[in-house]
């Protein structure tokens, strides 16, 4: 499927390095994204005022600065701001399945804490969430239900968070 069709069907994919989209405001992008998803579910589109009412609680829930809305998509954003912006997109999409590819990449300690807190808010309920990471520090902030270790393109182990701790301490050899 094309990316936009996957999104309409409820799959959200974040990127390790989100791109800038000059000339497209966050508000317009988020509203268009939201309305495409709503149409796919047979729901009415939201006009700008209704969308603002839909979006404001999400900003509050994620502890995000509303100034993000006035900026162009990722234009001039720091690494942490780009990741926060993707979490906002995830919240607006209300997807059934989300894949967050190295959401911790390039984040300082404070940004990691903020992004993790937002992900923890969104991971509640019956929606699927797959986090891809190379580092234990993300799992210290987001407590996964399962950890899968992938080596050479294959899942070699599945278990709880303790597997990630072992891997962090001793590398892949410690899991053999």
From TrEMBL:
SUPFAM superfamilies: P-loop containing nucleoside triphosphate hydrolases. InterPro entries: FeS-cluster_ATPase_SufC, P-loop_NTPase. It comes from the Eukaryota. GO terms for molecular function: ATP binding. Gene3D superfamilies: P-loop containing nucleotide triphosphate hydrolases (3.40.50.300). Keywords: ATP-binding, Nucleotide-binding. NCBIfam families: sufC. This is ATP-binding cassette superfamily. It comes from Micromonas pusilla (strain CCMP1545) (Picoplanktonic green alga).
């Amino acid at each position: 499927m094309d990316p936009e069709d996957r999104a309409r069907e409820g799959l959200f994919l974040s990127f390790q390095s989100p791109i800038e989209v000059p000339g497209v405001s966050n508000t317009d992008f988020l509203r268009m994204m939201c309305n495409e998803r709503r149409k796919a579910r047979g729901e009415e589109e939201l006009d700008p005022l209704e969308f603002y009412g839909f979006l404001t609680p999400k900003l509050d829930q994620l502890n995000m600065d509303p100034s993000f809305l006035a900026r162009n998509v990722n234009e001039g954003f720091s690494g942490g701001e780009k990741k926060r912006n993707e979490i906002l997109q995830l919240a607006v999409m209300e997807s059934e399945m989300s894949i967050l590819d190295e959401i911790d990449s390039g984040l300082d300690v404070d940004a990691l804490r903020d992004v993790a807190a937002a992900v923890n808010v969104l991971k509640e309920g019956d929606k699927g969430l797959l986090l891809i990471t190379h580092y234990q520090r993300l799992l210290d902030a987001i407590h996964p239900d399962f950890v899968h270790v992938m080596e050479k393109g294959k899942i070699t182990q599945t278990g709880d968070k303790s597997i990630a701790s072992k891997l962090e301490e001793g590398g892949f050899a410690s899991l053999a």
